[in-house]
Design brief:
CATH superfamily of the largest domain: HUPs
Number of strands: 4
Number of helices: 7
CATH architecture of the largest domain: 3-Layer(aba) Sandwich
Largest sheet: 2 strands, parallel
CATH topology of the largest domain: Rossmann fold
Strand order of the largest sheet: 1-2
Shape: flat
Amino acid sequence: MSWEKEFKEKELYWQEKWEQDKIFEVKFEPGKKKFYCLVMFPYPSGKIHMGHVRNYVIGDVIASYWRMKGYNVIHPIGWDAFGLPAENAAIKHNIHPEKWTKDNINNMRSQLKKLGISYNWELEIATCDPEYYKWNQWFFIALKCFYGSLYVNIEYFRRKKILQKNLRLWYSGWDN
């Protein structure tokens, strides 16, 4: 058997074992010190590249270090999927942004899992998920209630033709 084939078999074996045993899942243990390691969420506008690998491996090394020191480490991952980078990439490829984004999230998740990074995939979020962004909306509504109004230069966004659809969603009905 060639070393490449043997390597792929062993790599797949260990990745499946890690997932089956849930070794990166957070186990809340009272009395154990806690460490939260959050890395920048990738934009799901394409495939993982070496810049991603550098960022996420560094975060993984930090999470692993604290895990080996006996800390209860939360190392979540998410996708910065609500905005222009993903939307522009979808438009460029003539694909609906939702399909483009979800397909890229699935592809990038698979790539990150192959790297063996110790994310707790049970805590995965995507900023384009209504269950996520409803809390951003709630927060801004709470700010408006507390402060009486939110002053946002919407004209700037209209002139730049940026996120017009999202601005209508976010700010509709928020005027005094």
